[in-house]
Amino acid sequence: MNLAQAPNQTSQTPETPAALLGRVRIVLCRTSHPGNIGAAARAMKAMGLTRLYLVQPLCAVDEVAAARAAGADDVLAAAPVCASLDEALAGCVEAVALSARLRDLGPVAVGVREAVGPLLQRSAEGDVALVFGNESSGLSNDELQRCQKAVTIPSNPDFSSLNLGAAVQVMAYELRMAAFGGLPPALATPATPFSSAPAALDEVERFYVHLERVLATTGFHDPARPRRLMPKLRRLFGRAALEKDEINILRGILDSIEKPTGPRWRGTGADIEPIEK
Ligand code: SAH
């Protein structure tokens, strides 16, 4: 199901991915290193998350945090400092614990993707949270008990603990993928492509006629013994999904081989264009 189209239970209006991500709290419990708080903020902002909560941080949110946030200072500045996990989870309808090790008495263990999709669905009803532990001791049993599910990010069994900021990054990425129904736009600012419009099939056919003629002239292709050359070249160019500019370049190259017949293309190199269509 594409969560972005999931109806909001109250308003029946489609949820945008940004609205879904906007209801996810990233809760860091008893963090020791300001750099990890900054890294978490950066990881969040890069994936479209904004709601950072700090529970009893054991360090200041200082210039080291700001440096690691690398532009996500707004996420840092907006992060409430909470006296308890209960305070950070107030108003939430679901909390998922992140734990490198599963404990006997912890909440039910689920996979990353099993957790993230349903969590976003629950977000139609209210805020939801991912809860991360302290760098050296992880989450306490009390903190784990506050959560309804526990997730362990699959990792090397002999070296299973990720850096806190890296663990936030993995989960933020998975949330983004789920919020966009698996198809998030790849870039915030799309690159300006130098591609041109796709070539029409008739333009491509004229290119094949031209190519076959030139290859026969040069002796590379023997029309009497074609040895499936043209079907193979069609497969090759078919995979390339040729654009108009590319057809122009290829036909210009063929013209340059066929020179005695005179140019039907003006310009040189990538700027070549047909004199007549
Ligand atoms: N030494 C701690 C790990 C702390 S890492 C321990 O053994 O629990 C800091 C936090 O990052 C963890 O509390 C957890 O929330 C998150 N984290 C790190 N690696 C993880 C993993 N493989 N799966 C889930 N969460 C992880």
Second-tier CATH architecture of the largest domain:
3-Layer(aba) Sandwich
Compute the number of structural domains. Answer: 2
* Arrangement of strands in the largest sheet: 3-2-1-6-4-7-5
* Rounded average pLDDT: 90
N-to-C order of helices and strands: HEHEHHEHEEHEHEHHHHEE
CATH class of the largest domain: Alpha Beta
What proportion strand?
A: 5-15%
| Unreliable residue stretches | 4-11
Tally of separate helices: 11
Structure explained in plain terms:
This protein has 277 residues and is of the alpha/beta class. It has 2 domains: 3-179, Alpha/beta knot (3-Layer(aba) Sandwich), CATH 3.40.1280; 201-264, Helicase, Ruva Protein, domain 3. Helix content is 40%, strand content 13%. Strands 3-2-1-6-4-7-5 form a 7-stranded parallel sheet. Helix 6 crosses helix 8 (164-179). It is elongated and about 85 Å long. It starts with 16 loop residues before the first helix and ends with a strand. The model is unreliable at 4-11 (pLDDT under 50). Bound molecules: S-adenosyl-L-homocysteine. S-adenosyl-L-homocysteine binds next to helix 8. S-adenosyl-L-homocysteine binds at residues 98-101, 132-133, 135-136, 138-139, 151-153, 155, 160-162, 164, 167.
Relevant terms:
single chain, 277 residues, alpha/beta, Alpha/beta knot, Helicase, Ruva Protein, domain 3, 2 domains, two-stranded antiparallel sheet, 11 helices, 9 strands, 40% helix, 13% strand, elongated, binds S-adenosyl-L-homocysteine
